[in-house]
């Protein structure tokens, strides 16, 4: 089973590092402001939980029989190859609206643009998948051309 998931791009790394530095600075600031220890502990817990959940949402993207599988700790999405209406490289980078999910730490995961399901770790290597039921999935794969060849082979068999 080959994992096609793309390595993080420079922006994903930037957002992740920024979150870490911001979190450390925030906790230091709260500590130096002599606020109650409970506030520091709650702040640490919230920041750590956000970091952990984001990390656990990094997908593994692979093929299993005639299905494309997008698997994280929380979800296991199986998209039958024969249910895919269109699949294309999607290099377009622009403004997107996050309706529910993670927007940068380790990637972009969740619901974007009012209904698209995103599991993107590299915004420059996106693939847009539209199913017969008009459900849109956005994923990123390390080698988009190889991925499209592989999915076309599976679709022919």
How are the SSEs ordered, and which strands pair?
Elements: H1 10-32, H2 37-56, E1 60-64, E2 67-71, E3 76-80, E4 84-89, E5 98-103, E6 108-112, E7 116-120, E8 126-131, E9 136-140, H3 144-156
Description:
By secondary structure, this protein is an alpha+beta fold. It has one domain (1-157): Roll (PH-domain like). The chain is built from three helices and nine strands. The strands form two sheets. It has a six-stranded mixed beta sheet, covered by helices on one side. Strands 1-2-3 form a three-stranded antiparallel beta sheet, with no helix packed on it. A hairpin with a 4-residue loop joins strand 8 and strand 9. The longest helix is centred in the N-terminal third of the chain and has 23 residues, at 10-32. The mean pLDDT is 91.
